Amino acid sequence: MSDQQSNLFGWDLLYTSVENDIHSNQDVLLCLVHLVLISNGFQCIGIGDSKVLDGTESKSESLPKGWNDGYAIRYVYQGRLYNLKGTSLDDAIIINLIRADERTVSMIQLNTRSVIQRTGTLMQMIPDCSAIIDVVKKQLIDKVVTSTKTKDSANQTQPETSKPTSSVGINPSRLQDPPLRNPAYPYVPNIHPLDVGGADLNPFGLNPLGVPRNPTFAGGGGMLFVPPGRGRPPDINIGIPGGSLPPGARFDPFRPPDVDRFPRRPNAPDNDEMPPPGFDDMFM
């Protein structure tokens, strides 16, 4: 006899008390499930499917009267209510165990062919009872007894808090990212004298040490023309669809830079048209 069978006491007493109510193999299997529940600390408080526990219910290890009329039995374990519901099929019985406070459900399906006879000892009636006991314990009981709320809280990872790093001899302000450009004047840099022309040589706008001297204008450059629109958001230019240029992009001009500030009159020449021949000839 296995350890599980040796720890499952009371089959003979239980079966004798309900022998006259046994009418099918499903009844025998439900008796075994009930005994496994009782052996694991459950107490029976009657039949029905009520989810309310008022604390006045009488607790017993026996099956209540009418237990196989619909297979709806109520149990208490560690002060919590559990509802067992069995559904009879042609050659099987499906058993659900519901934990009322969390609405968690476990389910097993037992084959009626595992019941060889309806009289005798447990091994004579159900030779494979050890496997059934193991299924009831692991698949029916353990899955609902362990709180799902406890599992969820245990699986949540705590966010890591970053601590400021400090090094001896390093100014903490040098470890911070350079501030953003002034949005009101996005194209007017305050260039360090040693960095004049450096944007054409280094598109990242950094000196050889990798630290920008001018944090207010840390970006690169090197294009021929800085877009017009002083005081205007970087991606808005007259005559250019909004959003067509990335913010702060440099580009070759589509029109003279002073068109936005000094709109020309209709039909008047703009500033990039060639002067007439001899316009500035002192001998004309």
UniProtKB/TrEMBL annotation:
GO terms for biological process: proteasome-mediated ubiquitin-dependent protein catabolic process. Residues 147-183, 240-284 are annotated as: Disordered. It comes from the Eukaryota. Residues 147-174 have a biased composition (Polar residues). Keywords: Proteasome. Belongs to the proteasome inhibitor PI31 family. This is Proteasome inhibitor PI31 subunit.
